[in-house]
What does this fold into?
Amino acid sequence: MRLTAWHGLGAAGLAAAWLGLAGLAPARAAAPPPQPAQGPGGAGDRSATIVKRAVGRASAATFAFYAAGAAPAEGRPVVIFLHAWGAPNPQSYGAWIDHLARMGNLVLFPRFQEVNRTRPADATANAESLLKAALAELASDPDAKPDPKRVAMIGHLAGAPLALNLAAGAKEQDLPVPKLVFAVMPGGIASNPKARGIALKDLAAIPAGTMVITVIGDRDARAADAAARRILREASAVPPERKLFVRALSDDHGFPALTATLSAPAGVESGYDGGAIKLPPDPKDQKAPPFKWSADMALTGEQQTLVSQINNARTDALDYLAFWKTFDLAAAAAFSGADAGALKNNARFSDMERWTDGWPVKRLAVETPRAAPPPAPAPAASSTAPAARSSTAPARR
It folds into this structure.
């Protein structure tokens, strides 16, 4: 009779009964580490009201975000955020932008692309023009008050080479020279002048005092790896001690798993929807330039898939610890004049904390790129032309 009763419970009932007899509860998966309460990667000033405005004009606007109230006497550090191709709405990165603003930064988000109407070849010039106008307008604003001596750039995917281009052309364009370029999942670089994508400027023009850090993930990483190493190599005036190559590692020890994909740096926050921010009107007497469509304006199928992933991304421990914290630490080091070697030797920089069961999350892999080999010396030109062999000269034996 007792055997019949146990048999009727089935496998699931038997397991539950056994756990009940043993006084045990079902096992639960470990959760990822939460956001730090304060400091790098932390929540910042949660009591602050964040100003969300657009400067420029409707057809050429830059979104600006900063904490309400007067800026410090020295001004606010400026973080220029350059989005992925096809993701010009700041809400796709709203969680990171919110963090940056609550940490006291002035965040500028230039809308350098109008989807399906902007050519990649025009993106650099668009961003330069937008930033010059935005910085000029905000310079006299006592609440925004950008500090031109503390400027950092964050670029995601195609925004990464764009950030490098801005850094390379800053002096020529009369823009503040950034102390830090933080290139996350770099991509969208044109392979040649006629290819689709962002054409890199001469990155050797980036000043030696700029810190350059590339961050990639271990999923879909082949292209980002090649692009990151190319950026570090071509920024040849920047010494190796001011460069870092960082790799975020996926970790499925607990639930939800941490997956370092190309879209991982995005984190949607609807409170930063650009559509809800009033744009300044265009001058009434201004006529839009004639529009001429070209095939490279349209998003490819792969780009559409990636943009969809970006626009649906949610924040997790990778955001807090692999991207936000590393940027905060890098910016503090760059603004103080420290080199990247100090970051690499800082155990906190690569630490990803622990799952709730105490198991450590996989640390960031941090490398100092090798110095580029010096160019081979050109052969010395002879001062005299080699004598022509006489037709009567004896042949070699």
Q: What stands out?
A: Confidence is low (pLDDT under 50) at residues 1-9, 14-22, 382-397. The first strand starts at residue 50 and ends at 57.
